[in-house]
Structure formats: structure tokens, C-alpha cells
Specification:
The complex is a heterodimer of chains A (340) and B (252). Chain A has 16 helices and four strands. Chain A has 340 residues and is an all-alpha fold. Chain A has a single domain (45-338), classed as ABC transporter involved in vitamin B12 uptake, BtuC (Orthogonal Bundle), CATH 1.10.3470. Chain B has helices spanning 43-50, 74-80, 97-101, 116-131, 149-162, 179-194, 206-212, 235-248; strands spanning 5-14, 17-27, 32-36, 61-64, 67-68, 82-85, 167-171, 198-203, 215-220, 223-229. Chain B folds into two domains: 5-89 and 149-248, Rossmann fold (3-Layer(aba) Sandwich), CATH 3.40.50; 95-142, no CATH class. The radius of gyration of chain B is 19 Å and the shape is globular. Classes of the chains: A mainly alpha (340), B alpha/beta (252). Chains A and B meet through helix 2, helix 11 and helix 12 of A and loops of B.
Chain lengths: 340, 252
């Protein structure tokens, strides 16, 4: 035993030592990401063992690629908000508010494209209002966005009177095909959009000055300010982006089901938030990755589809959600402490 | 003789309290000035006037490289190359070393796209040349929270040097540091001298100031009570004089 440990301590081959050092560096740097991928693979294997017939055929994956983007499209920009140390709880209502504007413009002009543009603009405005309340008035984002969450939902209910709008006229149009069509007749277009959004958000977070300032603002506001980072502008921008993303996701969901329900968005709050946290983003701000959020949203999406397919009743869904979230987040916390 | 920074007849009154009284203070080119004084002696007021945070009372004059500076503002001070190293506060713990070095002044192109490789390379170079990190365990991608207090202080000082600061103000850089970490922080102050820049080193611990300063200015009750070139006074004499000042308010 003695000799073995001695060899480990003093690797005779310098090349081997370098490879070892590189490998441990790599593991340390990407521990969170590797961890979340492992969790995903394990869950997938469990499902595969549980019901091989379902999970070896394509339809389950098609269903899965059509519904997961509904919240993944919001979880990605929400990652930015949470890295700055803030939170947004109003996005489900902003989804519905954007679609209300969409419905109004659609009825007035008959154009889905114009309605889409108006919807994104409404989302942008709602996001900017969130930002202004938090940055300029100085209300904590948790409180502010609980308020705006009720407010926008109220606006939606007052305007629509609780009535939905049919969107079947969108079928065959550019917008419908572009956002929720099936690429090659197989892959839902919203899946492609999710990948595109993930790449764009990753780029801005990791390779752009804006992203650098997001990390700094969330990590240590005071030092960011001392070193000349415009923290208020960074925060305004992340909330604005979140608003646009919520409106966009609202359109994707509504076009997929060809109907706008005034309750749109309810039920997405927790799956979106848990995707971000499961993905390794810290609620305290300063750390988090786009890759983690993307993988985690697919884990959250898979649990729902997989449990039913595996022959368990839908009643199990929440229990297993809870278990997986608590266990993975605990694991991440322990890991990050050990790797310090 | 021209100084890097010269302050003539500076007073500062807050309401009824006169915190500085006709102070003359200068920093030469490539000189490390130790500013010693008890709590309430006016050290931080003096520094805040230099950095443009406070305006001095009318009648005082400030010269930078022989040119008068009419109104010193925070922005003006930065533009001239006056940089304050704040203890701990100015680092983002969970971020990598290179992100900390280039904090708020990231290298990027016209569109804001970061030159990540460039920043990593520069950081690696700074680490070897100025920070004395030789261990393979610390890389430009290491997070700052893994570093000791002395090393963090070093990161903050090297950052100031890299961005062409002419005059670096160290506000109690050894506060809260262990013995070996203090040693390290003091090495970085020597690094400022070697890089040809000037520094004001504020502390109330004479054992930290004496070894690295070229000249020591003793401030007491808002007035400059004495100046000593280090090669003209021994540590023991200086300590005796300081005790005398603290008790009587006079130097002799």
C-alpha cells in the first residue's frame, strides 16, 4: 500500500502529471455541469429501464421537444436575472399580458405578424417597468415582481373578461410555421428556437461585456460600482430581456395549442424557477451557467413525461420532482464546498 | 522641485470641526510615502481630498505634475491616474482572477465582444511578473475566494498598476491580515516602487509602514507634525517621536 501512495504523490512521468493536473482543473471548473448531465443521464436510464418500449421510440421525444421549450425559453433569460442577484416572479403574468395585446391587435388588424410584434413590445414594456421599480424606486425584486405578477394578471382578466381567443387563423402562416411548425415534419420548431436562444444567451453571458457585468453586479454590487460598472443599467436590461422572453414564450405556447387562455402562464412559475436552480445557478447571485439551466429544464420536462410513460400515475410527478430537486441542489452545494 | 502631487495650505472644516489645518503635503515621482497618524488625525480626510471625494476649504491649492488642479473630482482623479486600493471590498469573490483584474474595464472590441484569451494571457503574465504566483494550482481561471487576504490585496494592487495608475493610495492594506499575509501585501507595495510608480501608504502600524516607505509623514490632530526620510531616522527614534506626539501634540 505504501508504494502505491508514494507513486501517486510523485508521478514519475511529467507528462502524466500535467495531464492529471489539467484533468483535475477541468473537473473543478465544470463540476456543476458534469453533475447535472449525470443526473439527467441517470434519470433517462431509469426511464429506459422502466419502460423500454416508450423510451426507445421517437414519439415521446417529439412530445417532449414540443412542451419543454415552453418554460426553457424563459428559464434561460431568467438565469441572467438570478445571476445579478435578483428574481422575477411576474413572467407567467407577462406571458398572458403579451398574448392579450396579441389578441387585441389580431382582432383589430387581422395580422399575426403585427400582433406578434405588439406582443413582444408589450413584454418589453412590462420588463422595463419591473426594472424601473426595482432599480429606481429600490424595492426588492421579490416583492416588486409579486406585485406586478398580480397587476398584469389583473390587467389580462379585466381586458379579456376571462374569455379566450381562438388562433386557428394562424395555421399555415409564416409565424405559426416559424415558431411551432415541425422541421422536416419531425422536430418542433420551438426546440430549434430554444437552442438558438440558449446559444445567444450563452454568448452574451460569457463572451460579452454585458455578461461580465451581470456576473459582477450579482457577485459584489459595491465593488462593481467602485470599478465603474453601471449596475442600474445592467439590471434594467436583464428585466427587459426577461419581459420579452416571457411574451415570446406566451406566443409559442398559444400557437401550439391554437388558443389563448387568459390563465396562460399559470403552472410555469415553478418549473421555470426550478430549472434555473437545478441547473446550478445560485440564488445569492454571482454564479450560474446557461448550459446548466438548459439541461435542467429538460430534466424537469422529462420527469413529467417519463413518470406517466413508466406506468406510474400522475400523482407521483410532484413527489419525484421534489426529490430530484432537493437531492441535486444539495449535491451541488456539497460539491461546490468541497471543490473550493 | 516638481512633485507628482503637491498640496499647499489645505484645510478642511466639517461644520465646527476642523479636520485638517493648513496642511502641506507632497508625493514625489516614484516615491512611497507612509502616512502615519492616530485615529482622527485626518488621514482619511486628506486622502478623500486627493481622490476628489471631499472639496478642501477655499485657500488651498493642489498641483499635479506641477500643473494646478482647480477642482478635484472623483472622475478627474481617476483620469489623472490616482487609484485607491480598497481592502477586500473591490474584488468579486466568486469570479475568476482574470474577470477581477479586468473588472469594469474588460478588453473587448467595438461591439462589446470580450477578448477572453487576451485577458487570460495578460492575467497569466501579471501573475508571474508581479504577483509572484508560481504555483500551478493558481491559474487565471481560479476564483478569488480561494485566495488568502494578502494575495487578494496583491490582486487589487496589480490591477491598479496594470491600468497605469501613477499614484496608488493604499488605505490600511494590512488591516485584518495575518503575519505572513501582511508580509505578502508589503511585497506588493515594494512592487509599486519597482514599477516606477508612487504610493501613499496609510496605516497606524509603524512596523508595517517603516520598511516600505521612502518618507514618513506624521499627521496629528489635523496638522503635519513631522516628516522623516527613512534613511535619516531609525525605527526606534521614530517610535519614540510618535509616542511623544501622541502625548503632547508636539514633536519636540
Amino acid at each position: 500500500m505504501n508504494t502505491v501512495s508514494e507513486i501517486e504523490k510523485r508521478p514519475s512521468d511529467p507528462l502524466l502529471a500535467m495531464v492529471k493536473a489539467r484533468l483535475s482543473q477541468f473537473l473543478r471548473r465544470y463540476a456543476m455541469q458534469i453533475g447535472i448531465v449525470l443526473v439527467g443521464v441517470i434519470i433517462w436510464l431509469l426511464f429506459l429501464i422502466g419502460s423500454p418500449r416508450t423510451f426507445l421510440s421517437f414519439p415521446i421525444y417529439a412530445a417532449y421537444m414540443s412542451t419543454t421549450p415552453f418554460f426553457a425559453l424563459m428559464a434561460l433569460p431568467l438565469t441572467l436575472v438570478i445571476i445579478t442577484g435578483e428574481i422575477d416572479l411576474s413572467f407567467p403574468s407577462i406571458m398572458a399580458f403579451g398574448m392579450t395585446v396579441y389578441a387585441l391587435v389580431l382582432v383589430a388588424t387581422g395580422s399575426h405578424i403585427l400582433a406578434f410584434i405588439a406582443c413582444l413590445t408589450a413584454g418589453l414594456a412590462a420588463g422595463l417597468i419591473n426594472g424601473a421599480i426595482i432599480v429606481h424606486i429600490g424595492i426588492p425584486s421579490l416583492v416588486a415582481t409579486i406585485g406586478t405578477q398580480f397587476f398584469w394578471r389583473g390587467v389580462v382578466l379585466v381586458i379579456t373578461g376571462g374569455n379566450g381567443t381562438g388562433l386557428t387563423s394562424a395555421i399555415g402562416g409564416v409565424l405559426h410555421t416559424g415558431l411551432v411548425g415541425r422541421v422536416f415534419g419531425l422536430i418542433p420548431a420551438q426546440m430549434i428556437w430554444t437552442i438558438i436562444v440558449a446559444i445567444v444567451v450563452w454568448f452574451f453571458l460569457n463572451r460579452h461585456r454585458f455578461g461580465a457585468h451581470i456576473y459582477l453586479s450579482g457577485d459584489n454590487v459595491e465593488s462593481a460600482r467602485l470599478m465603474g460598472v453601471n449596475v442600474p443599467r445592467v439590471k434594467m436590461l436583464v428585466f427587459a430581456i426577461m419581459g420579452v422572453a416571457a411574451a415570446f414564450a406566451g406566443v409559442v405556447v398559444s400557437l401550439e395549442v391554437l388558443y389563448f387562455w387568459p390563465t396562460l402562464g399559470e403552472g410555469y412559475l415553478l418549473s421555470t424557477l426550478s430549472s434555473v436552480f437545478l441547473g446550478g445557478t445560485s440564488v445569492f447571485g454571482g454564479t450560474g451557467t446557461v448550459f446548466g439551466t438548459l439541461v435542467a429544464s429538460f430534466i424537469i420536462g422529462a420527469i413529467n413525461a417519463g413518470i406517466v410513460a413508466a406506468g406510474l400515475t400522475g400523482f407521483w410527478t410532484q413527489l419525484i420532482y421534489g426529490l430530484i430537486i432537493v437531492m441535486s441542489v444539495s449535491l451541488q452545494t456539497v460539491l461546490s464546498r468541497r471543490l473550493r | 522641485m516638481e512633485y507628482l502631487l503637491q498640496m499647499i495650505n489645505i484645510s478642511k472644516t466639517f461644520g465646527e470641526v476642523q479636520s485638517l489645518c493648513n496642511v502641506n503635503f507632497e508625493v514625489g515621482y516614484n516615491e512611497v510615502v507612509g502616512l502615519l497618524g492616530d485615529n482622527g488625525a485626518g488621514k482619511s480626510t486628506l486622502v478623500k481630498i486627493i481622490t476628489g471625494y471631499h472639496r478642501p476649504d477655499p485657500g488651498g491649492q493642489i498641483f499635479w505634475k506641477g500643473q494646478p488642479v482647480d477642482v478635484m473630482t472623483v472622475a478627474k482623479a481617476r483620469e489623472l491616474g490616482i487609484e485607491v486600493v480598497y481592502q477586500e471590498r473591490a474584488l468579486a469573490d466568486q469570479q475568476s482572477l482574470w474577470r477581477n483584474i479586468f473588472m469594469g474595464r474588460e478588453l473587448c472590441n467595438r461591439f462589446g465582444v470580450l477578448d477572453v484569451e487576451g485577458m487570460r494571457r495578460e492575467t497569466a503574465r501579471l501573475m508571474q511578473r508581479h504577483m509572484g504566483f508560481t504555483s500551478k494550482a493558481v491559474t487565471p481561471d481560479s476564483t478569488v475566494k480561494t485566495m488568502s487576504g494578502g494575495e487578494r490585496q496583491g490582486v487589487a494592487i496589480v490591477r491598479a498598476l496594470y491600468f497605469q495608475a501613477e499614484l496608488i493610495i493604499l488605505d490600511e492594506p494590512t488591516m485584518g491580515l495575518s503575519l505572513s499575509e501582511t508580509r505578502k501585501a508589503l511585497d506588493f507595495v515594494n512592487g509599486i516602487k519597482e514599477a516606477g510608480k508612487s504610493a501613499i501608504f496609510i496605516d497606524h502600524n509603524i512596523f508595517h509602514v517603516y520598511p516600505v516607505a521612502d518618507r514618513i509623514v506624521v499627521l496629528d490632530r489635523g496638522q503635519v507634525k513631522g516628516q522623516f526620510l527613512k534613511d535619516q531616522i531609525t525605527l526606534d527614534d521614530l517610535i519614540a517621536k510618535l509616542q511623544h506626539v501622541a502625548q503632547t501634540g508636539r514633536l519636540d
